[in-house]
Write a structure and sequence with these properties.
Elements: H1 2-5, H2 10-20, H3 23-31, E1 35-42, E2 45-53, E3 66-74, H4 84-97, E4 102-108, H5 112-120, E5 124-133, E6 136-146
Parallel strand pairs: 3-4
Antiparallel strand pairs: 1-2, 2-3, 4-6, 5-6
Length: 150
């Protein structure tokens, strides 16, 4: 939550983390075949992760054979060190394995670093949707791209 701490109220972040990241929630997500977690590891150290799977967002249902990229994070200490692109390519591979044609993700409108990366790798803004962080209703961009083959 480092990325968002300076721009959000601590109480909203705490509430969000409690609602989305408990041990039980993570255990259930890891066990659910609808999701796949991908870990970027450098010399045995986790540098980032992604969670991809069957779409849950209404905004993803408008696209051809969508696969949703729910989470895509690279640890701050690994920014700019070549972690994000291979992790994204692993997401494409998983999306293809799932029979997808389109990857759909949402990104906070006030996260320009992530938006720049997604645009750089071919995503385009396809709309917006609300995102609730604690008690704060925010706006996420919905971004999509065709899944590259090969």
């Amino acid at each position: 939550m480092d990325t968002f701490a300076a721009q959000n109220k601590p109480g909203d972040i705490s509430k969000h983390v409690a609602q989305r990241y408990s041990v039980a929630i993570q255990r259930d997500e890891l066990a659910d075949p609808a999701f796949t977690y991908l870990i970027a590891e450098i010399d045995g150290i986790a540098a980032g992760f992604a969670m991809i799977g069957e779409p849950r967002s209404e905004s993803c249902s408008n696209f051809a054979k969508p696969v949703e990229l729910f989470r895509f994070y690279v640890d701050k200490s690994w920014h700019g060190k070549g972690v994000a692109l291979p992790l994204m390519h692993a997401c494409y591979d998983e999306a293809l394995r799932r029979g997808g044609e389109t990857i759909c993700l949402s990104v906070w409108e006030h996260n320009p670093r992530a938006i720049r990366f997604y645009e750089k790798v071919g995503y385009a803004k396809s709309g917006t949707q609300p995102y609730v962080l604690g008690d704060d209703v925010q706006t996420d961009w919905v971004m999509t791209r065709e899944i590259p083959r090969g």
